[in-house]
Design a protein that fits this description.
Blueprint: H1 2-81, E1 89-90, H2 94-107, E2 111-117, E3 127-137, H3 138-149, E4 155-166, E5 172-187
Parallel strand pairs: 1-5
Antiparallel strand pairs: 2-3, 3-5, 4-5
Length: 188
């Protein structure tokens, strides 16, 4: 009987130890899945958000650097642009430009006709257009164009069409016709 009591006590003690180990294991699982897993997922989420924030702040920093460089370059451009203002057509100087074109055509013995012009309508525009027809010798027209491009105005040639002149009988003459459309940059 004593032996049986010892076996029962040992069995009870074994069951108690197994019950305690099982309870502690269950408690450990509850702690792991109830506290550690949510905490780890929260830490991972925070790390991802921190990374995204770091990338965003780095991009903003690079933009601010580029902006500062751009502002510096803009200042340099503005200071150097002052040197170009004398070469820009100014509203109100229409007569000066037309006189220049007439003197240029007379100097090179060219007949000049201004067909269309937006010189008087430059309000708010950065450019003015002039469309003209020229007639004269080929060499004189080339000299006219060379001097026009070398003038003090910023001139952009939009369209240029050279063609030989013909008589009524269809024979060519030494005269060449030039249809020219130019664009001038306007200083407001």
């Amino acid at each position: 009987m004593k032996n049986c009591k010892i076996v029962i006590m040992t069995l009870d003690l074994t069951k108690k130890i197994i019950a305690w180990v099982g309870a502690l294991s269950l408690l450990a699982l509850i702690i792991i899945f109830g506290i550690f897993v949510p905490t780890l997922s929260y830490i991972k989420k925070t790390a991802d958000e921190s990374y995204k924030l770091r990338v965003f702040l780095e991009q903003k920093y690079e933009q601010s650097l580029r902006s500062r460089i751009t502002r510096k370059k803009l200042g340099e451009i503005k200071s150097s642009a002052v040197n170009f203002y004398p070469f820009l057509f100014k509203s109100g100087d229409e007569l000066k430009l037309i006189t220049f074109l007439e003197i240029l055509s007379a100097k090179h013995n060219i007949a000049q006709t201004i067909n269309n012009s937006t010189l008087d309508k430059t309000g708010g525009n950065r450019t003015a257009n002039i469309s003209m027809s020229l007639g004269g010798s080929y060499a004189n027209i080339l000299k006219y164009l060379a001097e026009l491009e070398a003038s003090d105005y910023f001139i952009y040639i939009n369209q240029m069409q050279l063609s030989p002149a013909f008589t009524r009988s269809g024979e060519t003459t030494p005269t060449t016709n030039l249809n020219l459309t130019i664009e001038l940059y306007v200083n407001q």
